[in-house]
Amino acid sequence: MSHHEVVIIGAGISGICAAIKLREAGVTDVVVLEKGDSFGGTWRANTYPGCACDVPSRLYSFSFAQNADWSRVYAGQAEIKEYVERVAREHGVDEVTRFGVRMDDAAWDGQAWQLATSDGPMSARFLISAAGPWDAPNIPDLPGLADFPGRVFHSAQWDHDYDLTGKRVAVIGTGASAVQFVPEIQKQVAHLSLFQRTAHWVLPKADHAVPSLEKLALRHVPLLNRSMKRVEYAAMELVGRGFHRPKPVMVGLQKVAEGYLKAAVRDPGLRARLTPGYAMGCKRILFSNNWFQALQQPNVEVLATGVREIRGDVVVGADGSEAAVDAIILGTGFHILDMPVAEHVRGAGGQTLADVWAGSPEAYLGTVVPGFPNAFIVLGPSLGTGHTSAFQIVEAVTAYVVQAIGHARAAEVTLDVRADVMRDYVDEVQAGLEGTAYNRAECNSYYRDANGRNSFAWPWSSGALTRRFSRFDPTVYSTSPSLQEVSA
């Protein structure tokens, strides 16, 4: 059985960043376990037509590996994956990554993490979960779905071998993925039945191809690239202020969305079905230039209802409406607040992280949980901003984790965050969420966990997040002597 100082679970942007920064800090015995066959995480898994980021590409990149060659303002999946892979290989992360290896169980034995993996047992002094909240597709438990005679797949498990041309297709779900793939497949299918449980606010997307001359200038004038990034960051932070103080920014954005919907959709009946019944902000805001246009095509039917059951080849809506189809595509999102990795990590008391959370995930700084010594989560609970790049959050959390591991190595101790510290932090976050757009009472978004609490959103600015994570305070931890050897 092999022993390592740090084992990282996942080789998406979180795992890559953690591996790079730990090695830069002198922690050389690092291993990354990745169940897939390449880097990229969610950008490896999601290959559906039209897949792209909805944050400007300049912000959707590592601060230490800026890219001046993005082809579009909002890059597509293939380009993002290529960027992530290139950064990983340029920094040697491929040298410490084991692809095709799944972590099945991790248990704290008092001194180390004992791991059961698909490649055999191993142990680690420090464990970092970088699996991310967009890892496991959410497959709805619909009566009759398993017996559907046609093809069924989730948007994050796109079946590229199945030809949609001329098919009758049902799409269940109208979130961020569906907004991107529906306009693409609408051009192919004979008929598309869109089951929409909840309408979303949609804003136009300021996307365009980046001209060659602009790319040349950005490549050779770094100040220009940095200046444009600062402008984009400021614009996204303005949107962020709207989440935190819904008036007047979010009210103004909703007026823009209402105007866009009215201009794009002439049919008053369809427009009514596409108008959300909640104020903008409590659900994710979507961006598209072709969503409304696709829904008005003669081969598309918008059914403003959830799905009750699948009866043979017929999808039956909650309102009794029916659609006979050849294929069902699930645009039903991910297990964001009930991440499956939590079911496989057992702490000092023998309970899994999922058992301890009991439906409401919580962690100090969204990163460490009492009773799980020397273990860290990247992109954990209450760190979602709803408006800016996950890369900024990942880098802030990684900087904190590197400091924590550095302290534990230097002091030769094991770190376990104090329960009272976490409780005070969680109370502070929940108090901060009161009055924000995220917590509006009239809608039930994926921000809310199984117990109805908002365990997703960060209630302050992204700048405040970065500052909060910039200083490691050892006094918030209980410590015990470590018997682990420290690698040079």
Strand and helix layout:
Elements lengths: L1 E8 L3 H12 L5 E5 L7 H4 L31 H14 L6 E3 L3 E6 L4 E5 L2 E10 L21 E4 L13 E5 L3 H10 L5 E5 L6 E2 L8 H9 L1 H23 L4 H16 L3 H6 L12 E2 L3 H5 L4 E4 L3 E5 L2 E4 L4 E3 L2 E4 L14 E2 L6 H5 L17 E3 L12 H22 L1 E5 L1 H15 L28 H8 L7 E5 L7
Parallel strand pairs: 1-2, 1-6, 2-3, 4-17, 6-18, 7-16, 8-9, 8-16, 9-12, 10-11
Antiparallel strand pairs: 4-5, 5-6, 13-14, 14-15, 19-20
Helix pairs in contact: 1-11, 5-6, 6-7, 11-13
Keywords for this entry:
FAD/NAD(P)-binding domain; alpha/beta; single chain; 2 domains; 488 residues; globular; 8-stranded mixed beta sheet
Task: Write a structural description.
It is a single chain. With 488 residues, the protein is α/β, with parallel strands linked by helices. The strands form 5 sheets. Strands 1, 2, 3, 4, 5, 6, 17 and 18 form an 8-stranded mixed sheet that branches. Strands 7-16-8-9-12 form a 5-stranded parallel sheet, with no helix packed on it. A 3-stranded antiparallel sheet has the order 13-14-15, with no helix packed on it. The mean pLDDT is 94. It contains 13 helices and 20 strands. Helix 5 (212-220) packs across helix 6. Strand 13 (307-311) and strand 14 form a beta hairpin. The protein folds into 2 domains: 2-136 and 335-481, 3-Layer(bba) Sandwich (FAD/NAD(P)-binding domain), CATH 3.50.50.60; 145-201 and 256-330, FAD/NAD(P)-binding domain, CATH 3.50.50. The chain is globular and about 70 Å long. Keywords: Monooxygenase, Oxidoreductase. GO terms for molecular function: monooxygenase activity. This is Cyclohexanone monooxygenase. Pfam families: Pyr_redox_3 (PF13738). InterPro entries: FAD-bind_Monooxygenase_sf, FAD/NAD-bd_sf.
